[in-house]
Amino acid sequence: MNQPTNDFEKLQALNTVGTISYVLHLIVAVGAVIPVGGQFSPLLLIVALVIDVVKRSEAEGTWHASHFRWRIRTVIIAALLYAVTTPLWFIFIIPGWIAWILISIWFLYRIVKGMVTMNKGLAMEFPA
């Protein structure tokens, strides 16, 4: 008899963690696209990533697991893209700026898409 309540409570807890993580990612993503007060962005991103990595195992077997995977992958891919395009800043400022704007918009898109999908109660779909 406690199983449905425990499952419901587990999903509610995962939803709360997911919302907190998505909001932290969203603050970072908006700060990347509109660079205002960006000095806190790396710290918030690290906090969000640590939350996702630590809580990921609790989401195993639920639709929330796909969201943890989505957020972690988004951060890793964005970090790699930023690292690869960093030399453009030193060689050509405008191409570096354009590359970082495009990566930031992609990052923002991924976070908004994930947040909207989670709020609908759906798992993230990954291409085969």
Description:
The protein has 128 residues and is mostly helical. The chain has helices at residues 2-33, 41-55, 64-91, 93-119. The chain has one domain (2-55, 65-119). The chain is built from four helices and no strands. α1 (2-33) packs antiparallel against α2, α1 runs antiparallel to α4 and α2 runs antiparallel to α3 (64-91). The longest helix is centred in the first third of the chain and has 32 residues, at 2-33.
Blueprint of the fold:
Blueprint lengths: L1 H32 L7 H15 L8 H28 L1 H27 L9
Query: Biggest sheet: strands, sense, closure?
Result: none
Mean pLDDT: 87
Q: Unreliable runs, pLDDT <50, ≥5 residues?
A: none
Q: Count of DSSP E strands?
A: 0
Derived structural class: mainly alpha
Gyration radius over CA:
16 Å
Order of helices and strands: HHHH
Shape: elongated
The percent of residues in helical segments reads over 70%
User: What percent strand?
Assistant: under 5%
The number of helical runs is 4
Terminal Cα span: 38 Å
Q: What's the structural domain tally?
A: 1
